[in-house]
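sry for the spam today, last one i promise. struct tokens for design, 433 residues
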């Protein structure tokens, strides 16, 4: 099938490349000519494992291309996906839908009357109704079918998530649109993932409810970790014990410095705003947001305590800046809050991340960036592990100890066993143990 993806960012590029790998002919459209030129040269705007190879393969085989010309790309497309950003709106916290609505209006001007418009962006309940209204108003006499098809991609594992999904959610009551969407995803039916056909508003709500629930699980185990420290219990044993219950599950029960990234913070906020406007406030999710914000500052205090109560003029080594491993995404990353808090307390910050250094140079101009983990810790009075990259799980601890001024580790991801670190002669602080 012929598919146009409007937006060549994270969701649009991953989805477009995977659809092309299914055998569809895909054009990713973006208004940024520099981004399109870079993609045509094979340069990825984001770090996602395997994405560069997947894009190169499908470009070479003629199934994937990039363009700034929506008029040409949309003309004979059977499905046009909206995959633009929906950041939090300044001032009120609602999702900024201006890019979605602008895309809908532009698509309507050029799309074939039989084409379906699919919202892939994460949008509040009711957005599809407005997209439909905008599209039909822009092209009177053409009754475009508008579908909700939310993405459930984890950064760092997006290609696997797309090709082996837990479920595919398709929101439309239009039978022809359902048939088109089924055909688009037909290559996945060999793996038999559940395809959830529902109405459009329920589809939009599924996405927000899923992200809010996962954010809730993270916050829950973080609070349990705090309690474990007070009562001398081990949060990791507790997480395993409750995670083996099929009703709970083991995923997202890993204590740490709080959630970040491009989805959970803005999506929980948008859901809370939607609920408030509807007169059905979500008190649990409001608390999740508050607790998560406070947790990042708690982690700053934990580092200060590990330094004896003051970090004034002390060198602090930060390993990991991205909000999670296998991505270069610094949006709402806990490391940013921790670094800002420590800097305000007078610390000298040195940091290293395997992939996020280019972004860090822009966002954190006042800290020193190291070339690797070992140059980062040289002369440091405390080492703080913020992101659980695999390479940090196998550090040469003898070398680390010799390089540091003081052998102190604050492990905010519990990637080491306390006894092993104590036996190496370190002071070691972790989460909930």
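last one done:
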């Amino acid at each position: 099938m012929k598919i146009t993806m409007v937006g060549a960012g994270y969701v649009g590029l991953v989805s477009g490349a995977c659809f092309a790998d299914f055998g569809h002919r895909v054009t990713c459209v973006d208004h940024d000519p520099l981004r399109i030129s870079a993609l045509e040269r094979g340069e990825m705007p984001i770090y996602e494992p395997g994405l560069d190879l997947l894009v190169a393969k499908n470009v070479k085989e003629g199934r994937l291309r990039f363009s700034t010309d929506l008029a040409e790309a949309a003309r004979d497309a059977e499905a046009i996906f909206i995959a633009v950003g929906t950041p939090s709106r300044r001032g009120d916290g609602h999702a900024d839908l201006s890019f979605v609505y602008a895309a809908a209006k532009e698509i309507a001007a050029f799309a074939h009357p039989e084409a379906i418009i699919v919202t892939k962006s994460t949008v509040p309940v009711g957005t599809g109704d407005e997209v439909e209204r905008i599209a039909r108003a822009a092209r009177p006499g053409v009754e475009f079918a508008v579908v909700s098809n939310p993405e459930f991609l984890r950064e760092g594992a997006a290609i696997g998530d797309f090709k082996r999904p837990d479920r595919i959610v398709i929101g439309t009551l239009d039978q022809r649109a359902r048939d088109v969407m089924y055909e688009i995803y037909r290559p996945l039916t060999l793996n038999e993932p559940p395809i959830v056909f529902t109405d459009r508003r329920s589809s939009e709500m599924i996405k927000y409810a899923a992200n809010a629930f996962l954010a809730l699980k993270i916050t829950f185990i973080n609070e349990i970790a705090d309690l474990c420290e007070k009562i001398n219990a081990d949060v990791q044993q507790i997480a395993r014990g409750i995670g083996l219950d099929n009703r709970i599950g083991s995923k997202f029960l890993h204590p740490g410095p709080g959630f970040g990234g491009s989805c959970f913070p803005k999506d929980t906020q948008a859901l809370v705003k939607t609920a408030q406007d509807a007169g059905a406030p979500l008190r649990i999710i409001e608390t999740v947001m508050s607790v998560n914000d406070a947790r990042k500052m708690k982690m700053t205090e934990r580092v200060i305590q590990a330094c004896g109560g003051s970090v004034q003029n002390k060198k602090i080594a930060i390993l990991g800046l991205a909000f999670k491993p296998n991505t270069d995404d610094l949006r709402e990353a806990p490391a940013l809050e921790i670094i800002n808090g420590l800097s305000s307390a007078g610390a000298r910050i040195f940091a290293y991340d395997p992939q996020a250094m280019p972004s860090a140079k822009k966002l954190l101009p006042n800290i020193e960036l190291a070339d690797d983990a070992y140059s980062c810790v040289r002369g440091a009075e405390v080492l703080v592990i913020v992101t659980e990259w695999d390479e940090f799980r196998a550090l040469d601890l003898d070398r680390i100890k010799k390089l540091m001024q003081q052998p102190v580790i604050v492990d905010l991801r519990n990637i080491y066993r306390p006894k092993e670190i104590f036996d190496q002669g370190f002071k070691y602080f972790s989460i909930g143990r």
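Residues 2-198 form a domain with the Rossmann fold fold (CATH 3.40.50.720). ok im logging off now
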